[in-house]
Amino acid sequence: MEVLIAYLVLGAFAGTLAGLLGIGGGLVIVPVLAWVFRAGGFSGEVLMQAAVGTSLATIVVTSISSVLAHHRRGAVLWRTFAVLTPGVLTGALLGALAAHVIASDGLRVLFGIFELTVAAQMALGLRPAPHRELPGRIVTTSVGAVIGLISALVGIGGGTMTVPYLVWCNVPVRNAVATSAAVGLPIAVAGATGFALTGLESSMPAGSLGYVYLPAFAAIVVTSALFAPAGARLAHTLPTRVLKRVFAVFLAVVGAKMLVG
Fold this sequence. Notes:
Blueprint lengths: L1 H20 L4 H14 L7 H26 L5 H24 L2 H21 L12 H18 L4 H10 L4 H26 L9 E2 L2 E2 H21 L5 H21 L1
Antiparallel strand pairs: 1-2
Helix pairs in contact: 1-2, 1-9, 2-3, 3-8, 3-9, 4-6, 4-8, 5-10, 6-8, 7-8
């Protein structure tokens, strides 16, 4: 029962953050799942793979409502999405394959480094200045592949990379955020599928589909969907700039803890 409550609370926290700060839940879901799974007796060989794969599976569901909301507002640049998608699909599948052969401790260190990088970006408010146009199909697709690869390795939807890239290419922030949300869906689908398939012969506990632990997936999806609208409402009343800096400190602590094990 305690574990189920932990999953439900994690989903509520991740959903609230997504609505409040526009931050993908993977940055929180992956480390918390790793700690809960360890306490639950998961094999150390699959610990991070299970956390990352399960996180990506939750993003498949939670991103759909986000994409629909942005689409209704006409903010998604679907042509840009179409150019990025082949790359992110390929990159996410390669990321899942790579995660299968990388040791769990290696994934943990990689995630810790990424988390610290995001924390620094949020704390300093770093955002690239728009100074060029979106490049051609080959370059954009290649960038998508890199975004998909890294996203699948750390269990996120890629917004922390996609949004800065699009803004750098003179895409308005509103459209960059909306298009990034759309791009996160194929990243999550390809990544979760890859983790589900590559983990079929792994030492995962009962109730798993490959590296995706279904009880955690179901609980997180339910509460994150319920709490995301509440977070969005809070965004209009709370000082989000201050909250982002506070959350950056939280990410820095989590990232440091992941690095030291």
